[in-house]
Each structure stands twice: as C-alpha cells, then as structure tokens.
TrEMBL record, chain A:
Keyword Nucleotidyltransferase tagged: no
Similarity remark: Belongs to the MsrQ family.
Organism: Vogesella fluminis
Organism lineage: Bacteria, Pseudomonadati, Pseudomonadota, Betaproteobacteria, Neisseriales
Protein name stated in the entry: Protein-methionine-sulfoxide reductase heme-binding subunit MsrQ
One Pfam family of this chain: Ferric_reduct
The Ferric oxidoreductase domain, residue ranges: 61-174
InterPro entries, A to Z: Fe3_Rdtase_TM_dom, MsrQ-like
Entry's cofactor comment: Binds 1 FMN per subunit.
Length: 217, 302
C-alpha cells in the first residue's frame, strides 16, 4: 500500500494533477481504446457476415481517420474550456492514431481496391478530385507524423508549431475527400464539415480576440 | 399525451398484413398436404436460355445489401424498414399512348407465364451481383395494352407512400422515383418485370411486389415497386438524371469506357469475390442489345 498518500489526496486533485502512475494508466487506456475501432472493423470485415467487407473496411478506416483528426483538434478548445493540462500530453497520441488509421485507409485503397496497379493509381490521383484531395491530405499528414517526436520538437523550436498548423488544412481536405465520394446523401459529410468549421472558427476567434478587444477600447 | 400513447399502442397491436397473409397461407397449407409455408409461396417458373450460368449470389447477400432510398440511403436500411410497405392490394396502371389502357392487379401479374432469369446486376457504385429473378418479359404486358405508333418511350413510377416509406421524408431525390426506357428497350426480350427472387415472392427490400429488371443498364434503372407505367412520345425525366444530370444520363448503359465523373467504371467488385473484375460493355449483354444503339454516340448518350 505504497500509494496510501496518493489515495489520501482529494479526487479533484487527482483529476487536475494525476500522479505519474495514474497518468501512465490513462495513457495506456487511451492507447487501447484507440485500437477498438480497428478491432471492430477487422472483426466486421473478417467474420463473414458483411456483404461488401472490403468497402466497409475502407470506409470505416477513413471515417475513423477523420474522427481522430477532429478529436485531436478538440484538445485545445477543451483546454480553454477548463479541462486539465494533462489532456495536452495526450494530443500527440491522438494525432499519431489519426495518422495510423490514415495509413491503413490508404493501404486498403492501394491494395484491396487497386491491387498495386501503380499506373491506375496515378491516373486515379490525377483524374478523380476526391482521390487527389485524399492523397494531398495524406501527403500533408506525413511531415506532421515524422516531426512528432521530442527530438524534432526541440530541433524545430518555434517552427514546429507553425508546421503543425497544417492540420488546419488537412482536416477540411479530409472532409472534402468524404463529401466528393458520397453518391447523393451528403448529410453525414456535412455533419463532419460543421464540426470542423466550429473547431477552426474557434481558433480564428481566439487569434483575433486581442486585436478586436484592442479596437473596442 | 395519453391519447397519443393509446393510439400508438393500438396501431402497433394491429397484426401486420404480411403476418396475417402468412397465417392464411399457413392455414391453406395445413388444409392441403401440410406443406411448409415456403412451398406455398413458391412461384412456378420455367428456366430460360437467357439466364447466365454464373453462380448466383446468396439470398442473404441479395436481400441485405440494397439501394432503395425510399427506405433510407444506407445499404442495410431497406432490409430493416421495407417490411412496412403494404404490397397487397396492389395495382399497376398502364396508360398513355396505348389502345387499351388498364390497371393490372398484382395477382393477375403473378399469373403471367413466369420464367427464371438469372442475370448479372451491375450497380453504378462499382459492385455487382448475380441474381435469380422470377418474372416475365415486359413486352408480354405491353402487348396487352397495344401501344400506339406514338408510344416512343415508357415511363415508370414507384409508389409513393410517405406513411410506409421513412426515407421519403428527406428529399434526397425528387419523389416519386421515376425511370424510363425507349420503347425498343422496353420491348427487348431481356427486359423483364420481376415478381420473385430465388423461386419465391420478391422480398420488399428488392422492390416487391413488382419491379423492372434491365440487366445491361446500371441497377438504378431497374425501378422498384412499380405503381404506374405510362407510354408517351417524349423522353421522360428520370430520378437520377434529374438529381445530377452530369453524372447520370437517360440511357445509363453499363459502359467501362465512360466513367462516372467521380469514379471509374472500368472495374467492379462482384459481391463475394476478393479480386475486382473488368466491367463488360452492356454488362456482358452486348451481343443481344448493342444493336439497339447502332450509330449512337454512347459517350454523349451516357
């Protein structure tokens, strides 16, 4: 019972400043939770009751890429709304998971849709706007994933933050990729578009607020 | 509030029509040879040389993966909600440029000379199935009404039942669903009205009680749950080309050389297969139907 001191701390304090062991537990839990959608998608695709398992897998991985991207973008607003500071320390994992699902999503396209027919893939990228936009979004995600390590954060200093603002472009591109692929019923992509709009407008507002306040004075 | 709850419960307590129909079928069966219900529902049909020898998809695949937007835009929604559609009584009105306009009761359509037609179905979305329909040539029906010389086109309409079709509350398409064929396409021996599937009555999610099947065109041309057939001189407007004229044309023949503006039509995934197949011109029915379009620019008339 080495943790009796920790237990004695009030619950609110655990919430605001979790000890290293509690924070490690939170981190491991999040890591595992982020794998659940993948497990569900694979189970659905491989269990044999899906009629079009490959399409379901491809679409599902794309949807979860978008969801994780939006969750990553939720961290700053939540922090501003009073969420504890350790939330920021989970953001990298959410971002990397978005990248992980994006990689799998791309792989299903390259492998299960095109069967690595590179000529057809290049033609597709050039000819189909929704593929072009999807590839562009993935291309922009790549440097963010590479520079997510502590070493790169140190090396890039202030430029790291500037570089990672690319996510403000990537998220709308992801939504556009979804919107352009839908046959007719655009309700679902529009919901994602609305969420991205709120998350980005909040950032515009936060950026402009000091200037606006100064002007009022 | 109380009254509302009561009426809700009352309407839920009424035996759904399909259940009491089944009950009747069951009683009819027990009165006879104690045949199982499925045997009563079975439709007598002859085999057809126009059927493909390819292996049909399973009944499960065919009845659980459907595009029928009147019941929702999800592929699984028709199987969940289409049971709400009351398919009895049902009449199909055939009128317009005909000598003998009339309505056909569904029971009279079920008494037509039925054939099994195992056809490929290619969806415009890039997947395909092989489906054992039961039906009769549309020409058999049209001959009964005697089209006039001015009947150049045939327009079809799906029944519009907001109370039974949860999907029509949203205007995803301009309801009722409409389709059309040129008269020679409509009279072609491959064009059928289907009333059954896998030897039994058509399930609601597949377009019960009667639907069109035109196997050389993208699936959306094969309109479901038909309530009206109108012969006319002018080319009729059709739902998908009204919704997106640059993406869906009147003809909508399966054509690997003409892509959908947003995706390729060169290949397709046959449901149940891992590798994709090459899509065939006219969905593989070119030998029978290519002549209908001789001299036409099929890139322009997509």
């Amino acid at each position: 019972m080495a943790d009796s001191t920790t237990l004695a701390r009030p619950l609110a304090l655990h919430w605001q400043q979790p000890g290293p062991r509690l924070f490690a537990a939170i981190k491991v839990s999040l890591f595992l939770v982020c794998l659940l959608p993948l497990a569900q998608l694979l189970w659905h695709a491989l269990a044999g009751h899906a009629v079009n398992p490959i399409e379901d897998l491809t679409r599902g991985l794309g949807t979860w890429t978008l969801r994780l991207l939006l969750l990553t973008l939720c961290v700053s607003p939540l922090r501003a709304l009073g969420a504890p500071g350790w939330l920021l320390r989970l953001r990298r994992m959410l971002g990397l998971y978005a990248f992980f699902y994006a990689c799998l999503h791309l792989l299903t396209y390259l492998w299960l849709d095109q069967f690595f027919d590179w000529g057809a893939i290049v033609r597709d990228i050039v000819k189909r706007p929704f593929i072009t936009v999807g590839m562009l979004a993935f291309g922009l995600l790549l440097p963010l994933a590479i520079t997510s390590s502590d070493g790169w954060i140190r090396r890039l200093k202030r430029n790291w933050g500037k570089l990672h603002r690319l996510v403000y472009v990537i998220a709308p591109l992801g939504v556009l990729h979804y919107l352009w692929l839908v046959k007719r019923d655009i309700q679902s992509p529009l919901i994602y578009a609305a969420i991205v709009a709120v998350l980005l407008l909040w950032r515009v507002w936060r950026y402009l607020r000091p200037t606006l306040a100064a002007r009022v004075k | 509030m109380l009254i509302k709850t009561l009426t809700d419960r009352l309407s839920a307590d009424i035996t759904p029509q399909e259940v009491y129909l089944n009950r009747r079928q069951f009683m009819a069966g027990s009165a006879g040879l104690l045949l199982p219900v499925s045997a009563i529902a079975a439709l007598p049909a002859t085999k057809s040389p126009l059927s493909t020898s390819e292996k049909p998809n399973s009944r499960d695949d065919i009845t659980s993966y459907n595009n029928y937007y009147e019941f929702g835009t999800g592929k699984d929604e028709p199987a969940l909600y289409a049971r709400r559609l009351k398919t009895r009584p049902w009449t199909v009105t055939v009128d317009g440029e005909v000598a003998k306009a009339r309505s056909f009761d569904i029971d009279s359509l079920l008494k037509m000379k039925l054939q099994e037609r195992i056809y490929r179905l290619r969806c415009v979305e890039g997947w395909s199935m092989v489906i054992p329909w039961i039906g009769f040539p549309l020409a058999d029906l049209l001959k009964q009404v005697q089209p006039t010389s001015r009947a150049k086109y045939v327009a079809f309409e799906t029944a519009l039942r907001p109370g039974e079709m949860p999907g029509v509350a949203r205007r995803v398409l301009d309801w009722p669903y409409r389709e059309g064929l040129r008269i020679d396409e409509a009279m072609h021996p491959l064009t059928i009205l289907a009333v059954g599937l896998y030897g039994e009555l058509l399930p609601n999610q597949n377009g019960a009680p009667v639907r069109l099947v035109v196997p050389w065109k993208y699936g959306f041309k094969s309109i479901k749950s038909i309530s009206r057939i109108h012969l006319q001189e002018k080319q009729p407007p059709t739902s998908w080309s009204m919704a997106a004229p640059n993406e869906y044309g009147f003809y909508s023949n399966v054509n690997p050389a003409v892509d959908h503006p947003r995706w390729s039509q060169a290949t397709e995934r046959r449901i149940g297969e891992f590798f994709k197949r090459k899509t065939l011109p006219f969905n593989g029915y070119g030998e029978q139907v290519a002549g209908l379009y001789r001299g036409m620019d099929l890139r322009r008339n997509f």
